[in-house]
Amino acid sequence: MNKIRSLRCLLPETITSASTAASNRGSDGSQFSVLWRHQILDPDSNIVTYWNHVFLITSILALFLDPFYFYVPYVGGPACLSIDISLAATVTFFRTVADIFHLLHIFMKFRTAFVARSSRVFGRGELVMDSREIAMRYLKTDFLIDVAAMLPLPQLVIWLVIPAATNGTANHANSTLALIVLVQYIPRSFIIFPLNQRIIKTTGFIAKTAWAGAAYNLLLYILASHVLGAMWYLSSIGRQFSCWSNVCKKDNALRVLDCLPSFLDCKSLEQPERQYWQNVTQVLSHCDATSSTTNFKFGMFAEAFTTQVATTDFVSKYLYCLWWGLRNLSSYGQNITTSVYLGETLFCITICIFGLILFTLLIGNMQSSLQSMSVRVEEWRVKRRDTEEWMRHRQLPPELQERVRRFVQYKWLATRGVDEESILHSLPTDLRREIQRHLCLSLVRRVPFFSQMDDQLLDAICGCLVSSLSTAGTYIFREGDPVNEMLFVIRGQIESSTTNGGRSGFFNSTTLRPGDFCGEELLTWALMPNSTLNLPSSTRSVRALSEVEAFALSAEDLKFVAHQFKRLQSKKLQHAFRYYSHQWRAWGACFVQSAWRRYKRRKLAKELSLHESSGYYYPDETGYNEEDEETREYYYGSDEEGGSMDNTNLGATILASKFAANTRRGTNQKASSSSTGKKDGSSTSLKMPQLFKPDEPDFSIDKEDV
Amino acid sequence: MELRKDKLLMFYSEGKESKEAKWAVNDPMSKSYKLSLPSALRPDNLLPGNRLRYTDASKSKSSKVSWYKTILDPGSEIVLKWNWVFIVSCMVALFIDPLYFFVPAIGGDKNYPCARTDTSLSILVTFFRTIADLFYLLHIFIKFRTGFIAPNSSTRVFGRGELVMDPKAIAWRYIKSDFIIDLIATLPLPQIVIWFVISTTKSYRFDHNNNAIALIVLLQYIPRFYLIIPLSSQIVKATGVVTKTAWAGAAYNLLLYMLASHVLGAAWYILSVDRYTSCWKSRCNGEAGQVNCQLYYLDCDSMYDNNQMTWANVTKVFKLCDARNGEFKYGIFGNAITKNVVSSQFFERYFYCLWWGLQQLSSYGQNLSTTMFMGETTFAVLIAIFGLVLFAHLIGNMQTYLQSLTVRLEEWRLKKRDTEEWMRHRQLPEELRNRVRRYEQYKWLATRGVDEEVLLQSLPTDLRRDIQRHLCLDLVRRVPFFSQMDDQLLDAICERLVSSLCTEGTYLVREGDLISEMLFIIRGRLESSTTNGGRTGFFNSIILRPGDFCGEELLSWALLPKSTLNLPSSTRTVRALVEVEAFALRAEDLKFVANQFRRLHSKKLQHTFRFYSHHWRTWAACFIQAAWRRYKRRVMENNLTAIESMENEEGEVGEELVVVEEEECVEESPRTKMNLGVMVLASRFAANTRRGVAAQRVKDVELPRFKKPEEPDFSAEHDD
């Protein structure tokens, strides 16, 4: 295998530009994969994982099934044992079905690949697909245990016991059967541990939910109770039989009666020798567990006879034994009253030790499962308590505390305590981009500024966008602060206002709605050819009117995108930026208002000059000079704007007309307010404060090349 | 301290003659130092002194002295192993000691029981206890030969601290601190009492000595149990944990639980025997009748003379002391008497008492119904307290071990649940969810929930480099591009390589996207295709296999002399066909390696890069196709020219074509300067691409021009 792989590495790859060659190779690969899929399986594939789960369930069912063989013998009459053949046949049938699963498991192990140890240095490792190596490895490791667990030993003993029952060795056969079942129980239990390990190794957990894990542990507990109850029942039958055997030997020793071993089998009840022996012997009085005068010490096994467990029907017998096992396992055998018999004492010690171990395991696993269910809620509760304690410790004012509580509550509703960044960061680049495209793209396209960009640019921007949450009343920017991010509003409303650098008498306020953006000074800064580290200062104060959800683009991300993608520098984006920028809109509104005031002032001066004589010549000249100065100052800007406007195409004209239509209402309101101000004092209106033209982002590509 | 330092200096300066130096260092050095002789005279004194003593002492004595005087480091391997061996022997000794409680037993028959001693059991227990005592003695000896950390604050401020190796200081410190407890634990007190008892035969002494044995064993049990606590803390201090695996820790705690049950059962047994015999004694002393009762009548070793037999016939002591019908109240000890525990064989006695202890300890003694006897009530209180403490301790430790076993699994389950909940909360489409689940599954299989970066960052630089060399170097050498580099360059690259996992169907990079890393494929297959910038009619697709690399535009960018921040755009779209495991070299790491190591600028690497770059192969394939089409067009025009020789305009067009061909030939002239290796590579390349060229159909339509890829600047002079 290694030689073939090394040869492939040495050979250079050919360029497969021909479609016919590609189609041939594809079909050949598919045929080979079909053949491969039928022969050798991947240990981490879905089919092997599914089979592991199925086999785990059947193994546990088989462990539940085997102790039913212990209920086959029962007391069928006075001083005799009998065999429940129908129960034996039923259990044998189900056990054979379980053995078929074990056989299939061995077959699957011969067809499952394994990871070569030397290739585990990097990544997941390479699979060994050679059938001979797989078989050799399996034979060296787990094959013997699997065969020992698979052998149908109880079935063989049952079919041998039924014809041998005529010999009168029923108890001997029962003991052999119990011993074989107990001995085979060990490899069958042992199989479950590597199976658990294999499932955990493949998927990371046994049970998907915490409750399933807790139920699984409880099921193991009940299984142990079931096994323990069955052993108690069988040991009780054994003690009763040994008492009968002792009395039988005593009768033979005293030579009073002839007691044959077959007398203790219920098949000999009708024989006359057996009936005579039963009438004369004292076995019933000596071996009666319900009587207090008996000499034989039954100890903990007397309960099986005082409650008629050994002679009742199967369902009642089984449920009582299960209850006995569950009771003594959960109380570590503290209710048991034993005799000094060595086997009985050892059995009780085993019950106590297993009870301690299983109880401790159950509590530990239950606690682990319950803890994992509520770990996020507990983390959040601890975090809230820490926040409250810290706010009390720092003596924050109640208004600030209320704002912090509102934000924490809002963050829980938005994220449910899950750290979104860490989840995204652990995924590969392509998946991360797909997820961020799903999360951001439909929302980002609502922002008109982004609708001008192409998909590749939008993917890069979606990768950098971070969600930003602000509660009502929060100041996102204040006038004069450095702008470190650009916000694109998705939900909520934002108030954006400016005083033009703190100038008295000037105030402009707009409401930003979903689709708008703020912090546009950052785009101007990002497109500068000289990369300065100083962030621009904000010309507006931005405050959240309601709970705002927005996407934030940080300064370094914006600079990175601006440098990487030359397509960001285009006239189309320039016009869209001017159109949707509220800063430019404010400047446009001021420009229109100044032009209108200049027009009205010129008209008034003209009318006055018509009606007045030469006596007022000096004041008219002064007003004309002022008007001329203002006209010259704005004419300079108008020239520049006009020059650039001449070069725009038809799209710009459409945008300009749309812009004019949208700002008509604002202009009317400003005109009415300005007329009111004019009535109060004409000197103030004459000295109109001038709004500076905002810096235009450099969209030209030529300067970048220089 | 100065004297010690001088001795140490003398010891280390003569390394080869360490034995002789040790032998001589006590007498002549101290004397010479006290007399303050000049240093020139010291060798003269040492040499004859060594010779004289060497001739006097035999070889065996010198070897014994050297072994005897060896000082051990408390953190060394041999002391740690001895601590383990000693703690195991302490546990075994704690298990053996309560077996002395089973030595007294009840003999005789039902009508005339008597007190007896199980001599064979006492001999056996004494033998095993003597072996355990030898371990305690050896422990004391080793403590006299183990150094300790000087308690000065100046030595322990940094690092581990300095060792004190002086035998006198070690002995003095040990005698002041732990010697008394070790001595009490070592004393063979039960052995002395047992051998003293065997010589006596009188019953009243026998009873007294039984109580003496029990009292002595119980009293010595306290220092023996106390020894385990500092021993466990020493092991924890040296290695961090007592047991290496969690299951061994759980078994250790269960073993302590069983030991407590064993001690409790044995104590219950000997108290039962004591209650039984004390009833006999009180009735015997109070009996006044025709025949007086002597205490030795209750001993199984008595003479059985006529007076004793007469007394046995008329006495009522045993009837009054019967546990079922008698007047005496046995309380919690009645079970031992009614069930004949005290008169059974040893194994039956032992296992029943173990079961009794286990039962009462795990149920906190709630089945006990006591009398008003104060000793019995105190015993029951102790059972309840110890039961509560041990049970809570067992559950707590079991839970700690279980959680340490499953902490990684629980973290993974939590992360998976968080991811599922977050995907549902954000309403990702089902196709994206399945891709995320498949990637998480693949990541679990590759890493098993362990963060490799965190593990590597916590190691020192040299270990980290060696580990990354082990992880990367054999795989990196499979990539032909790296096989041309030397070891130092490969080490630098291995340190910066990051493993990258891609599931099926993942787009690693799309045409036009920024390339941020260069991938070297280790396992899996990738499909790399290009449309030459979205041009219609052009499509090229190849399969990348283990040993190939993609993102080679990044190498051109890294070797540029001007360090521009703009990352290059990808000219190809790369998609994973199956699960891919690759090494990624990030852009900043590649630029760092290119700037630091000038050896990356070489013509050999340039030719290897051209040979293995699929970008260059694609260009070469297009170049060959264009040349072939040009040749076919020239042949066809020659035929047409031969047929139509009278038209002059076509002749002019032919001349223009000839001029264009000459220009292209001029462009190709620098390639003739390449050496023989390049020609061999080129011929191999041409042979491999012959099939691809042959499969191309002849098209009369003009082929769109494919731009020559930008060549990385491998020249070293340009950087200078």
Explain the overall architecture:
- The complex is a heterodimer of chains A (706) and B (720).
- Chain A is 63% helix and 7% strand.
- Chain A is of the alpha+beta class and 706 residues long.
- Chain A has three domains: 173 residues, no CATH class; 187 residues, no CATH class; 154 residues, Jelly Rolls.
- In chain A, the strands form four sheets. Chain A has a four-stranded antiparallel β-sheet. Chain A has a four-stranded antiparallel β-sheet with strand order 6-11-8-9, with no helix packed on it.
- In chain A, strand 1 and strand 2 form a beta hairpin.
- The two termini of chain A are 58 Å apart.
- The N terminus and C terminus of chain A are likely disordered.
- Chain B has 720 residues and is of the alpha+beta class.
- Among the domains of chain B are: 169 residues; 125 residues, Jelly Rolls.
- In chain B, the strands form four sheets. Chain B has a four-stranded antiparallel β-sheet.
- Chain B is elongated, with a radius of gyration of 46 Å.
- Chain B starts with a helix and ends in a 25-residue tail after the last helix.
Characteristic terms for this protein:
heterodimer; A: 706 residues; alpha+beta; Jelly Rolls; four-stranded antiparallel β-sheet; disordered N terminus; B: 720 residues; disordered C terminus
List the domain count of chain A as a whole number.
3
Low-confidence stretches of chain B at least 5 residues in length (pLDDT < 50)? 1-65, 201-206, 647-675, 690-705, 716-720
Taking all Cα atoms into account, the compactness measure Rg of chain A is 46 Å
| Shape descriptor of chain A | elongated
Binding site for a nucleoside 3',5'-cyclic phosphate (chain A): 449-579
Cytoplasmic side (chain A): 1-53, 108-142, 196-217, 367-706
Protein name (chain A): Cyclic nucleotide-gated ion channel 18
Region (Disordered) (chain A): 661-706
